Each structure stands twice: as C-alpha cells, then as structure tokens.
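Support request, priority: normal
Reporter: lab tech (M.K.)
Component: structure prediction queue

Hi team, I submitted a job for Nuclear receptor binding protein 2b from Sparus aurata yesterday, and the status page still shows it as pending. I've pasted the exact input below so you can check whether something in the sequence is tripping the parser. The sequence length should be 401 residues. Please let me know if I need to resubmit or if it's stuck on your end.
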Amino acid sequence: RAGMRWLKGGICQGNVPGVESASLAMDTEEGVEVVWNEVLFSDKKVFKAQEDKIKEMFENLMQVEHPNIVKFHKYWLDMKESQARVIFITEYMSSGSLKQFLKKTKKNHKTMNVKAWKRWCTQILSALSYLHSCDPPIIHGNLTCDTIFIQHNGLIKIGSGLLPAGLFVLLQSALATHTYYGYDYAIDIFSFGICALEMAVLEIQANGDTAVSKEAIVNAGQSLEDPLMREFTQSCLRHEAKLRPTAHDLLFHRVLFEVHSLKLLAAHCLINNQYLLPENCVEEKTKSFDPNAVMAEIKHEDRQGVQLKYSHVSPLELDKFLEDVKNGIYPLMNFASSRPHPVPRALSLSQEQVETVKTPTPEPQETETRKVVQMHCNLESNEEGTKTHVSHIVLQVLGPF
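Reply from support: The job had stalled in the queue. We restarted it manually and it finished. Here are the results:
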C-alpha cells in the first residue's frame, strides 16, 4: 500500500521451505529491494497458544547482526477471522548461490583454489559461531551450498533460500514440538562438513539419487589430497554428534588457523572505531605522507637491510582492503565473536508493540535504533556575563542497527 515503508510487489521468489509465499518488495526508506515473507497458521487456536513464543523467537532473531548472515529486517503479526500469519522482511540476495558457482567452476574444468576454500570456510564458521553463541543459541538447521550465497567481491552470506540463516525452515514444527532452541549445534557442524567437502571437490556424485549417499561422501573425502583438509572434513562428519567440534574450535584447526597480520588487526581496529574518526581520514592521511619516507625497516647484520616506503603502499588497494574487512570477508578467528545481548521477554514486548489486528495487514511502527556516540555543544554568555545559553549542538550518531 502507498505510504508504507515496505511495498509488496507481485514477483514471487519461488518455493521457500516453511514459507507460504516470498515476494520481492521495496524498502521505500532505503530505496532497496527486500523480500516479503509470509508464514500462514491455519489453526488460529494453536497460533494464539504459541503467540508469546512466536514473538519471543522473532524478537531474538531481530538481534542477529553479522556480515556473513543475510539480514532480518522486520516482522509483524496479522490476525484474520479463522487464521493468522507472520509477515517478516529480509534482505534480498541478488547474487548466485555457492552451488551455482561450484557447478560453473566444474563446467569450466577448473579446480578449487585452496586459499578461496579456506576463506569461505572461515566466513561460514564465523557466522555459525556467532549464531551458536547467541543467548539462547540459534541453530541454522538447513545449511547447504544452495543456502550459501557468494557475492562478486568474495563475501559469503548464509541464508535459506531467501531467508536469513535458515532460521524459519523449522519454524512451524518447532512451535509444535517446543524444540526450536533445543537443537544441538552438531547438526550445523555436520551440514558444514558436507558443504566444506563439496566446496573442495566441486561436486559430490549422487549417482542419480536425490540424496547423497554415505558412500559418495566417503569417496569424496578420500579424494582429497591434503591430509589436513581430509581430517578437517572428517571431524565434522563423525557419526556421534558429541564428538564433532564446535564452529569456534574449527576456526582454530590447523588447516584454517593462521596468525593474523598486523595489517588485518589494524584494519579491524580502524573499522570498529570508524565513528570516532573524521570522514575520509584514510585518504587525507595517505595524501599527507612523503612517498619517499621510510615507514619501516628490517636490518640484517650479515646483509643489506630492507626498507619499506610509503610509495610501496597503494591507497586504492588499502581502501579496497578496508572495504573488504568492513564487509566481513576477513573475519578475526582468533578472538571471541561479539554476541548479541539476550532479549528479556517482558522487555522485548514493551520496547515495540507488535500489533495484532485484523486484516488489512498493519504496518508496525518504526522504533529509534540509532545511538549517539559523541555530543558537542557551545555555551555563550550574554553581554553582562550573568547568564549562559546553548548556541550550538552537534551530535554524532551511529546506526541504524
């Protein structure tokens, strides 16, 4: 409807597990395409009995914020006479899936680049580690190469069809069994192991079967030449779930782990504190340097030393590297990931009144999510010097979240 932030379009986005319909929509505030998803509950009594649990679940999902996870924007409830539905807005991923990329690579008779494989694994595990560390933990439940997206810059994002992180595939069954948050992380680790194996060999032969057999998985694993890659994937595919490593543990496996360079650590520090720095500070700083000045020197007693000059650093390459770090292509694996704060049930319901009204679908009110990180003000005195007043206020705002 005109005047709403989310304008639903008529283009259907195909079959999405657990969702009755998924259509392209427009975010009129940001001017970008999003996906409008609907989950229908035909039994209104069952829905009403689980309404608080549904709200709590979606409120927690609203807290998910990670560069390698498709963004969940908004949700609201719509009650009709005999049925109810949940409507939620998610980020639109126009890029292709990892499955499509692997098929294209195989078709061109190319092999998988080991560095790219490691970078992809690191990004996926960074996202899984984040989800599993939420309070309560969130289990993906539907991780496949079809639900992993790769962008042109190499950024990986996990989702489920058009949904963020596969969080809704098990939604309706979870509400019936009360086990949504009870699934063990080992399910995701096994799925990741299959994805990591498929990324390495490009395709796991299914011999015409719809499901990949255990024999095909074993054969694919044995075809890996690198013993560390074999060990890595096999640890994820252990039959006993309790013997599988966590996503955080896998980030420290010998095949992936590396000591971060000072350049990467400095880039993360810069990005995390960017709101404290003036705009275009990197560009302005690099312009002020003398290109022939020595920024670092390695001295050797038995041979000539090495000097590193500012002219050896390309500002364009530095800007691209900072942008890649900001987008999540190079996550820090050696440190505990930031965790979203748990949302107390009573607090989550009072912060935003999720209206439950009859059709037509209501548009929920937007709440302020930006944060003031710096504030400056000028005080001026009157001519007599007896009174002062605020003449100027400058706010630096970070957000939205």
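Residues 114-132 form the longest helix (19 residues). The mean pLDDT is 75. Let us know if anything else looks off. Ticket resolved.
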